[in-house]
TrEMBL record:
UniProt source species: Lysinibacillus xylanilyticus
Cofactor: binding comment: Binds 1 Mg(2+) ion per subunit.
Cofactor: Mg(2+)
Pfam families for the chain: TMP-TENI (PF02581)
Residues reported to bind 4-amino-2-methyl-5-(diphosphooxymethyl)pyrimidine: 38-42, 73, 111, 140
Protein name: Thiamine-phosphate synthase
Record: residues binding 2-[(2R,5Z)-2-carboxy-4-methylthiazol-5(2H)-ylidene]ethyl phosphate: 137-139, 169, 189-190
Gene: thiE
Biological pathway: Cofactor biosynthesis; thiamine diphosphate biosynthesis; thiamine phosphate from 4-amino-2-methyl-5-diphosphomethylpyrimidine and 4-methyl-5-(2-phosphoethyl)-thiazole: step 1/1
Role noted for this protein: Condenses 4-methyl-5-(beta-hydroxyethyl)thiazole monophosphate (THZ-P) and 2-methyl-4-amino-5-hydroxymethyl pyrimidine pyrophosphate (HMP-PP) to form thiamine monophosphate (TMP).
Ranges for domain Thiamine phosphate synthase/TenI: 8-192
Amino acid sequence: MKRDDLQLYFIMGTSNVLNQEPLNVLEKALQSGITMFQYREKGLNTLTGQAYEDFARKCQKLCQQYHVPFIVNDDVELAIKLRADGVHIGQKDLPVSMVRKKIGNMILGVSVHSQAELQTALQYGADYVGIGPIFSTTSKSDAKPPSGTDFLQQVRIQYPELPIVAIGGINCSNAHTVFKAGADGIAVISAICQSEDISNTVSTFKSFVE
Ligand code: 3NM
């Protein structure tokens, strides 16, 4: 994968979008210049079964039109079935080693919160790591307490070339601090899903890219 793909990584599931068509939100975000997309169907009233798969396919098709990598959260089987560009896993999902075996050379992103988790992710060939939550977030019910940028800075110093995306509570007012700390990019849910002007939000974020 290209490190630049992480610059503005939009994450969405149907429950993240209120009063709008989720696919319209994704299309606006793609038109505005997001660089990567993750389908993450979590929370209340989520899609299941065929509706879940159909929605994932629609998101994938849109991403393909805009040449933006389409990543599936957690669901390795769906990612393989759809031939997604990649999978993102957290620490509660299958072990990194097993996921790597299953997906071959698809993109593998892993959320890490400590040196031990980072070392395991690197050992088994994560293509990028997600570090967070940097700030407090209401988009993930089981998010850890906000960590600030210390761990991110430390990992950047240790691994100058490692693709790193920061996540959690990132908005147009605080994104610059995350790039300054060494992130290649930011991953956001609410900043885009709840934006009244997605094009403006995306351009503001992209103006901070180092
Ligand atoms: N993962 P928002 S925080 C999906 O810390 C997710 O690993 C996190 O949403 C982690 O941009 C988070 O609305 C939610 O804060 C990010």
